Amino acid sequence: MSKRARDPDASSGSDNEKATKKSKKDDAEILDESDDGKTEWELGKMRKVSLNEFKGRVLVDIREFYSDAGGDIKPGKKGISLSPEQWEALKAAIPKVDAALKKKGK
């Protein structure tokens, strides 16, 4: 089965995934802070936000993950990496997005 055919929200039940699950109130807690400078937060099932360094630049990465045939959790193709400037622009847009969602009754 291809990665695209898999349901990104389906839980594999692997030990690694279970170890990173948090309750709703703990969503803002850091899941992992590794030696390579990567820090992660879980957004939901198989979705994470992380801080990464690439070519000397710090990026905010928002990405879906998948479980491979061996049960290992790996980053998928669906995601976006934002520079600090783009991250600030996204944060500035959040109140407007929230207001638009409220207008639509979501």
Structure, explained:
The chain is of the alpha+beta class. 25% of the residues lie in helices and 35% in strands. It has helices at 15-20, 84-103, and strands spanning 32-33, 39-44, 47-54, 57-67, 73-82. Strands 1-2-3-4-5 form a five-stranded antiparallel β-sheet. The longest helix is centred in the last third of the chain and has 20 residues, at 84-103.
What's the SSE pattern?
A: HEEEEEH
Low-pLDDT stretches: 1-27
CATH H level, superfamily name: Transcriptional Coactivator Pc4, Chain A
CATH architecture: Roll
Mean pLDDT: 78
Q: Supply the number of helical segments.
A: 2
Tell me about the biggest sheet? Answer: 5 strands, antiparallel
Q: Number of folding domains?
A: 1
Radius of gyration: 16 Å
Across the major sheet, the strand order is 1-2-3-4-5
Q: CATH topology, anyone?
A: Transcriptional Co-activator pc4, Chain A
How far do the termini sit from each other? 34 Å
Q: Which structural class matches the secondary elements? A: alpha+beta
DSSP E strands, number: 5
Proportion of residues in β-strands: 25-35%
The assembly state of the depicted protein chains is: single chain
* Inertia-based shape: globular
Short key terms for the protein model shown above:
25% helix, alpha+beta, Transcriptional Co-activator pc4, Chain A, globular
Ordered list of secondary-structure elements with their pairings:
Blueprint: H1 15-20, E1 32-33, E2 39-44, E3 47-54, E4 57-67, E5 73-82, H2 84-103
Antiparallel strand pairs: 1-2, 2-3, 3-4, 4-5
